[in-house]
Amino acid sequence: MSSITRILCATTLVAAIWAPASAQQPVEQRMKVQFKDVNRRLLEMAKDRPADRYNFKLKPEMRSFGEVIVHVASGNVYAAKFGRGEKVRWDELDPKNYANKAAIVALMEKSIMDATATMNSLPPESFTKNIEPWLDVMEHSAEHYGLLVAYYRANGMVPPESRPKK
Q: What confidence tier does 8 reach under pLDDT thresholds 50, 70, 90?
């Protein structure tokens, strides 16, 4: 099977699986659900991770756990400002301004609340006109969620989402 054929088959399969669900839920609702879910997972990690492991890096040239959380919060700040039509840069937040776990968790909580409030204030049609900023931020957050899972595993820890549910 050629690579083009495989791509077409995979795309058709995804569309067939996703189409019934998408017909039941408007785009803005799916976006809100996904945004909430990825941020819930990241915030849970931020709260769960011991403070003495916030400086852990997989490699010296990588961001520390805490710096990754600040970086993800930067994405949320970007989304909120973009959604409000404000001038924005992705890298507005400097991890050096958040010295400890408490400051980083508070930042993450605020960034989620602000971005969620902005998202909820937008008219539904805005999600069909320009969905890219929200998709970019969610994809970015999901990528870093995966990275932070590796940080947990490298420290012999089980990420909160992978733990048995009580």
A: very low
The full set of domain ranges for the chain reads 26-162
30, burial (CB in 10 Å: exposed 0-12, middle 13-18, buried 19+): middle
Query: Region 6-33: what's the mean pLDDT?
Result: 62
Backbone angles phi, psi at 28, to 5 degrees: -65, -35
Q: CATH for 26-162, among 1.10.3430.10, 3.50.50.60, 1.20.120.450, 2.40.128.20?
A: 1.20.120.450
Give the three-class secondary structure for 104. helix
What is the average per-residue pLDDT within 157-163? 94
Which amino acid, one-letter code, is at 28? Answer: E
Look-up of token digits 């590796």: 150
